[in-house]
Amino acid sequence: MSLETLVSPPIAAASPYSPTEFDAYVINSYARFPIVLERGAGCRVWDSEGRDYLDFVAGIATCTLGHAHPAMVNAVNRQIQKLHHVSNLFYIPEQGDLAKWLVEHSCADRVFFCNSGAEANEGAIKLARKYAHTVRGIANPIVLTAHASFHGRTLATITATGQPKYQKNFDPLMPGFHYVPYNDIAALEAAIAQLDADQPQVAAIMLEALQGEGGVRPGDRAYFQRIREICDEKGILLILDEVQVGMGRSGQLWGYENLGIEPDIFTSAKGLGGGIPIGAMLCKSFCDIFQPGDHASTFGGNPFACGVALTVCETLERDNLLQNVQERGEQLREGLRAIAQQYPALVAEVRGWGLINGLVLKEETATVSADIVKAAIAQGLLLVPAGPKVVRFVPPLIVTAAEIEQALGRLNQSLSNLSL
Ligand SMILES: *Cc1c(COP(=O)(O)O)cnc(C)c1O
């Protein structure tokens, strides 16, 4: 089969698919928008009625190379024909090669692979707890996390997540977490002083370099630099959750590069596989203290996921996508700021890094982000809320200048349709 046929399969007449039938079988744990997506190419997807959308969701900051990218199509086909899964009872070249790429392109020395962001964060929390017990002699280690953070949906990671709405009705939560306001160094220092008053208890500080789900809030450089000093002074581990902002989305390969610091441990997932499920927990050699039997994942690091993710990484580098992320990000923020000026009663600010940007709504307006997302979908633009007052823009990293322009036009049209 030629690449052309793989990339652009002949499309038959649109096939109607009923959301009602879907709801009869699938557990209703998601609030879904009422469109049925069937195929994609680049930064566009098509619904079951043949309508096209500019995809500025990208599978929630995941489809790094967009849809049906020839390099990914090739990698998927190559790997499934060669070897797709064998377990970690054996050596896997693709896993080793991906780990090598990540180590050579980050501050980390070693990598553990899993399948999702929550799982990567679980690994980071386990590693930090083991380090606290075995290296620092802390009996009841505490991990500090931030209000408005998001770290996943497992029991430990909803506990780490500093947002009560994700924890409600799932208690008892995991012990060993404590919350501080984000970007507030005085509050952090006060919390450590209080928790460590009698004996050291704080094992790790776990933060996003930019808070994604919590409202596209970039980390403050001075805050993170002071945290790095505190961690160095006290032997506390600094864990950065790079699940959303990492893998080039910020305009740098890793979010921490925007902050001028290096974490001891960091996690990656969303963009790493370009939409193929994979997660990674990376650490420096001094805290690489896991031994055989300490941690594992049946699917983690299999040849399929790692082979495809390595192709995503190499394509990002070969096609110089970081530069595209920086330029298109500038263009997008400029356009959003121009739109914001047209709607001063609605929009408070535009913020973000690279191609993770938020249109922040005024607290006092009755409009919520989901209203704008719905209006945008009606105009053929997919967006995703980041909380009730922020509309998030996370297109594939291959997005073109023309696509940004078109998306801004469709957004403008949707806002005027909302007649604000
Ligand atoms: C999405 C996200 C997670 C959770 O990732 P899953 O793959 O859904 O488990 C964790 N942390 C951050 C910052 C995220 O954006």
From TrEMBL:
GO process terms (BP): L-arginine biosynthetic process
UniProt-listed Gene3D superfamilies: Aspartate Aminotransferase, domain 1, Type I PLP-dependent aspartate aminotransferase-like (Major domain)
N6-(pyridoxal phosphate)lysine carried by residues: K270
Residues that bind N(2)-acetyl-L-ornithine: R153, S297
Annotated catalysed reactions: N(2)-acetyl-L-ornithine + 2-oxoglutarate = N-acetyl-L-glutamate 5-semialdehyde + L-glutamate
Residues annotated as binding pyridoxal 5'-phosphate: G117, A118, F150, D241, E242, V243, Q244, T298
EC annotation from Swiss-Prot or TrEMBL: 2.6.1.11
Cofactor(s) in the UniProt record: pyridoxal 5'-phosphate
Cofactor comment: Binds 1 pyridoxal phosphate per subunit.
HAMAP family listed in its UniProt record: ArgD_aminotrans_3
Complex and partners: Homodimer.
Protein name per its UniProtKB record: Acetylornithine aminotransferase
Organism taxonomic ancestry: Bacteria, Bacillati, Cyanobacteriota, Cyanophyceae, Oculatellales
Name of the gene encoding the protein in the UniProt record: argD
